[in-house]
Amino acid sequence: MMEKRVLNVAVVGAGYFGRFHALHSAKHAREALIGLYDSDNLRAQEVAREVGTTVFEDYETVLQQCDAVIIAAPAEAHYSLARQALEAGCHVLVEKPLASTRQDGEALVRCADDKGLVLQVGHLLRYSAEYEAINTRIKHPLYIEATRIAPYKLRGTDVSVVLDLMIHDLDLILALVESPILHIDAMGAAVSSTHEDIANARVQFANGCVASITASRISFKTERKMRLFSQEGYLSADFTSRTLSFINRKEGLIMPGSGGFRRQSVQWRDHDNLAAEHDAFVASCLDGKPVIVDGDAGLRALDAALRVGEDMQRARQLLQSSGLLSH
Questions:
Q1: Helices and strands (H, E) in the chain, number of each type
Q2: What is residue 19's three-state secondary structure?
Q3: Residue 244 to residues 13, 131, 225, 237, 300: CA-CA distances in angstroms?
Q4: Considering the entire predicted model, what is its pTM?
Q5: Cα→Cα distances 262→29, 131, 145, 241, 244, Å
Q6: What is the pLDDT of residues 190-221, one digit of tens each?
C-alpha cells in the first residue's frame, strides 16, 4: 500500500492570521505542522502551546526542515521571507498583499517560476461560496459596485486601507473582469492612522466595464457587499449575511409586473474559506494541481492596489494646491 504523502509545513508569523493558519495546519489530514516562527518569541510560544507544536528560534532552521511555509507576517516582511523560502526550495503560501512593491512582487513570481515551486497568495475570498455563486451567474459584468467597511481595529494599520481591505474586492473584480485596467480615479484620507483609513476608487477597464469600490476601517458598522450589472441580469451579494439575490430572465420566481423577470434568492451555510485555501495549497504542492490564486494573480491585485494609492496621492496634491485641503 502506498504511503500517504503529507506536506511538512511551518507557519511564519503568530499574529491574528498566523494563529488561524496554525490551527488549520495542525488538523489538516495532509499537512504536518512542524513548528512556528515569529520574531516575537513569547507570542509564538503561546500559539505553539495552543496547537501542540514547537517554536523555531531562527528562520534558517525553519527552511531547512520544511517543505512549505505559510507566511502571515506584516506586509513589509512578505518579500524577504517569501524570497528566502523560495531560494531554499520551499513552497510558499503568503498572505495578501504579495509584496509591498511591484518590483518585489515581480521578483517573487520569477523566482517561483525559475525554481518550479508553488507560490500561492492568500486572497481568501476566491475560495468562498459567494465568489463561486457570482462567477457562475455573471460572466460579463458591465458595472460593479463593491463596499467593504468596518469599525476601527489596530490590526492591519501598518498599510493603507487599500492594501488592508480594498485589495480583497480588487482581486475579486480582476478575476471577474477579463480585461486590463485602463484608468483609475481614486481618493482617500488618513483619519486614525498614518495611512489612508478610507478610500474610494473608480476603475475603468479596457473592455468598457467600470467598477466603483469603497473601503473604510473607521465606520460604525461592518458591511461587505457587491452589486453587479450585466446582460445576464442584476446580482446583489452580501458577504456578511451570506445571501445573494439575482434578477434575471431564466432562474427563480417570476416577479409580477416585471415584464418576465425572475428573482433567485440564495443563502449559504457556513463555509470555511481558510480550510479550502489550505486544501488548494496542499493539492498544488503534492499533486501538481494548478494554483488557484498564483503569483500572477497576486501581482495583478497588488498592481491595482498600488495604482489606486498613486491616484489617491495625485488627488491629494490637487486638493492641497487648490486650497480645499491643508498641507
A1: 10, 14
A2: helix
A3: 35, 11, 10, 4, 27
A4: 0.91
A5: 43, 21, 22, 22, 14
A6: 887 778 899 999 999 999 999 999 999 998 88
Residues in a beta bridge with 161: none
In three-state secondary structure terms, 305 is: helix
Phi, psi of 221 (to 5 degrees): -140, 170
Task: Work out the angle at residue 118's Cα, subtended by the Cα atoms of residues 115 and 119, and round it to the nearest 5 degrees.
Answer: 100
- Please give the full DSSP string across 226-285, using - where no structure is assigned: EEEEETTEEEEEETTTTEEEEEESSSSEE-TTSSS-EEEEEE-----HHHHHHHHHHHHH
- State phi, psi for 304 to the nearest 5 degrees: -65, -45
Of 5-14, 25-34, 127-136, least confident by mean pLDDT is 127-136
Residue for cell digits 500517504?
A: 4
**Contacts of 190-193 spanning 24+ positions with Cβ under 8 A:** 191/218, 192/152, 192/157, 192/217, 192/218, 193/157
CA distance 102 to 107: 8
Instruction: Put residue 116 in one of left, alpha, beta given phi > 0 → left and psi -120 to 50 → alpha.
Output: left
